[in-house]
Specification:
Length: about 260
C-alpha cells in the first residue's frame, strides 16, 4: 500500500463568527462558523488563501481565552506560519473541521461536552455572535486507497470518523467502532451502503477498550485509523506492533489524555 497523499497549506490565522449552535446529542455540540476570512482575504499587507480541509482527520487549532485570567492571547501571523507569544502564552486546542462548505461559507466544528478545560468550557457557553480564532489546517492527509478500512475512535474522534464515512466511496468496505460514554452520544451518520457501524459503551479509564475490539489483527490491505484517549491508543499501538502490517496502512493518534490538559506533559 502506498502512503496516503498529503497536501500542505500556509498556516493562516482566521477570525470567525459563530452563526449557529446545534446540539447533535446531549454530549456533542456543533458550532457553525462563518465570516469573510473563510474565503481568501488580505490583512496587514499579506494575502491569505481560502480555508480548505480536504482530509477526513484534518485538524485546526482553536485559540481560546485563558479561563483563569480571561485573557485571549493570539499568535501573530507570519509568512505562512504563526509566531507564538510567550507572555501571556497562547491557549490552543486541536479540533477537527467537521465539514466546510465553500458555497454557503460555513465551517462546522463538533465539540464533546466533557465539562472541563478552555475548549470544553467555551463550547458549554457558546452563543451565536461570538468570535472564534483558529489556525490551520497545516497539512491534510487525503483518503488512502485500500481494500478495506477499519476506523476506531471515542467521542472526540467521532467528527473525524463521520468525515471518513462521508468521504469514502459508496462501495467502500468499512467498519467503524465508536466508543461512547453513554447511549445518548449516538448520532446519525451518513456512510457507504455496506458500512458496518458499531457503537460500544466506553469507560474512559479502560485502556484496553480499543484493543479488545480487534482480537485478531486485520489483514494487510486494510487501512487502520484510530483516534482517542492516550492510554487506549498506546495499548492499541502495542497490540498492532509486531503484526505484519505496512506502516503506511496504520494511523493512530492521541486525541486527549485522561486527567491532563492538552499541551501539559
Ligand atoms: C487531531 C485532534 C483532533 C481533535 N478533534 C476533536 C473534535 O473534533 N472534537 C472534540 O470534541 N475533541 C477533539 N479533539 C480532542 C480535544 O482536542 C481534547 O479533548 C482537548 O483536551 C479538549 O480541550 P479542553 O480545553 O476542553 O480540555 P483540556 O484543558 O485539554 O483538559 C482539561 C481536562 O479535561 C479532560 N478532557 C479533555 N478532553 C476530554 C474528553 N473528550 N472527555 C473527558 N475528559 C476530557 C482532560 O483529561 C483534563 O483533565 C481532537 C484532538 C486532536 C489531537
Amino acid at each position: 500500500m502506498t502512503a496516503p497523499e498529503k497536501r500542505r497549506f500556509p498556516i493562516t490565522l482566521r477570525a470567525l463568527e459563530v452563526v449557529a449552535v446545534t446540539d447533535l446529542s446531549p454530549r456533542m455540540r456543533r458550532v457553525t462558523l462563518a465570516g469573510p476570512q473563510l474565503s481568501a482575504f488580505e490583512a496587514d499587507g499579506r494575502s491569505h488563501p481560502g480555508f480548505e480541509s480536504p482530509g477526513p482527520d484534518d485538524h485546526i487549532k482553536l485559540f481560546l481565552r485563558d479561563p483563569d485570567t480571561g485573557v485571549l492571547s493570539l499568535p501573530v501571523q507570519g509568512d505562512g506560519r504563526l509566531h507564538w507569544p510567550q507572555d501571556p502564552p497562547v491557549v490552543s486546542r486541536e479540533y477537527t473541521p467537521r465539514g466546510f462548505d465553500p458555497a454557503s461559507g460555513q465551517l462546522h466544528i463538533d465539540f464533546v461536552l466533557h465539562g472541563h478545560g478552555p475548549a470544553g468550557g467555551w463550547a458549554a457557553q457558546v452563543q451565536v455572535g461570538q468570535q472564534l480564532h483558529l489556525g490551520g489546517p497545516r497539512v491534510s492527509v487525503l483518503l488512502p486507497q485500500a481494500d478495506s478500512y477499519l476506523l476506531i475512535g471515542d467521542e472526540t474522534a467521532l467528527p473525524a470518523i463521520a468525515n471518513w464515512l462521508e468521504m469514502l466511496p459508496e462501495d467502500a468496505a468499512v467498519t467503524a467502532h465508536i466508543l461512547i460514554g453513554s447511549p445518548d452520544a449516538q448520532i446519525p451518520l451518513t456512510a457507504p451502503k455496506a458500512a458496518q457501524i458499531q457503537w460500544h459503551p466506553y469507560d474512559e479509564t479502560d485502556a484496553e477498550a480499543m484493543t479488545r475490539l480487534i482480537p485478531s489483527v486485520p489483514p494487510r490491505g486494510t487501512y487502520i485509523w484510530a483516534g482517542g484517549e492516550r492510554a487506549a491508543i498506546t495499548a492499541l499501538r502495542a497490540h498492532l506492533d509486531g503484526a505484519d502490517l505496512d506502516p503506511d496502512q496504520v494511523d493512530l493518534s492521541n486525541y486527549w489524555t485522561l486527567g491532563q490538559a492538552a499541551g501539559e506533559d
